[in-house]
Write a structure and sequence with these properties.
Blueprint lengths: L16 H13 L2 H29 L16 H24 L4 H32 L2 H5 L13 H29 L1 H24 L3 H10 L2 H6 L1 H16 L7
Length: 255
């Protein structure tokens, strides 16, 4: 009697770096409330508040309002700043879980960066589309400018997409650096970051004042278009991303 040889079955394919990156992206997408729904709710809530104020001012006015009375506001900046919170929440909620599934820190950070890039484009295009609707409806019927205020009102829509996407990248990757600080050092890292940021801002303002460079700063902002100014944020976003990665690579997952 001859014993039948038992042949080993095919080995399971190892998870590739791309697979782990996709897993990271899917984990982020599994919580759309944090990364998609809440930012839009914040944006529309701020818009509704601004629109209500416009209507109150219009009803209270005893005469015609000055041209462009409702075009100078920074309400849309709320959602831009809120993206820092989104980045911190998203990374804090998913880092330990994804690394626990076997993803490397590198793959996690690359996958997260792709998600942040996609979100920047989605929100940048979405806000620009709302700006187009705003123009088409003559400022929501009362000459308002919320989604493209100030000097953005007359820019082509494609430039708005570039500007908003660039600013959102800055917020997301700035948030990724803050999140990496929190993941690695907890609340103490966040406190140290904001203290350091405040010192840098004060030192910068002091340096500009001492060297009497405010005129040069003003000339820089008036000489360059909004698109060019937005492009200047891209190296800062890249630097923030690199900083986030350097911090994340040594972070310890928390159970």
């Amino acid at each position: 009697m001859t014993a039948a040889a038992t042949l080993p079955g095919p080995a399971a394919a190892p998870h590739t770096s791309l697979h782990r990156m996709v897993t990271t992206m899917r984990v982020h997408a599994s919580n759309p409330w944090t990364i998609l729904a809440t930012p839009w709710l914040v944006l529309f809530a701020v818009f509704a508040l601004n629109y209500a104020i416009w209507q109150l001012v219009k009803m209270a006015a005893t005469g015609p309002l000055a041209p462009g009375a409702f075009t100078q506001n920074g309400g849309v900046s709320y959602v831009l700043v809120y993206m820092v919170v989104v980045a911190v929440q998203a990374m804090n909620q998913t880092f330990s879980f994804v690394v626990g599934l076997g993803a490397t820190r590198r793959d996690y950070f690359l996958g997260t960066s792709l998600v942040f890039g996609a979100l920047s484009l989605v929100f940048g295009a979405g806000i620009s589309l709302l700006a187009w609707v705003e123009r088409a409806t003559d400022g929501w019927g009362i000459g308002g400018a919320f989604f493209a205020p100030w000097g953005l009102r007359t820019l082509p829509i494609w430039q708005l997409v570039v500007i908003y996407t660039s600013l959102l990248l800055l917020m997301f990757f700035g948030g990724s650096a803050v999140a990496a600080l929190f993941v690695r050092w907890g609340a103490n890292g966040i406190i140290a970051f904001f203290i350091g940021l405040a010192l840098v801002i004060v030192a910068t303002l002091y340096g500009i004042t001492v060297t009497e460079s405010w005129q040069a700063v003003g000339d820089f902002f008036t000489r360059n278009s909004a698109v060019v100014l937005a492009a200047y944020t891209l190296p800062i976003s890249a630097a923030a991303g690199v900083l986030g990665w350097l911090l994340m690579r040594r972070a310890t997952p928390k159970g």
